Amino acid sequence: MDIQYSMGHITVPENNSPDPVGKWLVAPNKWSIDGFRLVGPLLPQNFQLIDITGEKMRVVYDMPIPLGEPHYAKIIRAERIKALDVYPPGTDIYTFKRHPHAIELGHERVERKQDGGRWVTEAGRPL
Question: What is the pTM (predicted TM-score) of this model?
């Protein structure tokens, strides 16, 4: 199928594994010639999401991206990501102590209400 000009490296989920999966292909394109408005001295790059399940592939989304030449993109299954508990939730990244407005896990919320004739926004229940 035709894609945007000067394609970078295509990727599909788990493309470097012995068991590639999925029904999508991402084409990170180096220059989006005539695809989007000019944004200064450089032309924007773009990612094209391509459905590869049918008889013919088709572009389902075309997204401009800012600076940076797209190369070597990887798509992996979310369950392969093993998160590290480096800092407990609610840690202030500048002081490495509990942030004074940290929210207790499981009590996340955003509420907008009237207080004394003005609107206020409250978020979560503090620890």
Answer: 0.54
Q: Per residue in 24-63, pLDDT tens?
A: 888 887 766 666 666 555 666 788 889 988 899 999 988 8
The answer for residues whose C-beta is within 8 angstroms of residue 14's C-beta and 6 or more apart is 20, 21, 22, 75, 76, 77
Q: Is 48 left (phi over 0), alpha (psi -120 to 50) or beta?
A: beta
The DSSP secondary-structure symbol of 29 reads E
One-letter-per-residue 3-state SS of 57-101: CEEEEEEEECCCCCCCCCCCCHHHCCCCCCCCCCECCCCCCECCC
Backbone angles phi, psi at 66, to 5 degrees: -75, -150
- The answer to whether residues 8 and 29 touch, using CB atoms and an 8 Å cutoff, is yes
- For the record, the structure tokens of 20 come out as 């590639």
Look up residue 109 and give its two tokens: 């919320």
- Return the closest-CA partner of residue 47 out of 13, 77, 3, 16: 3
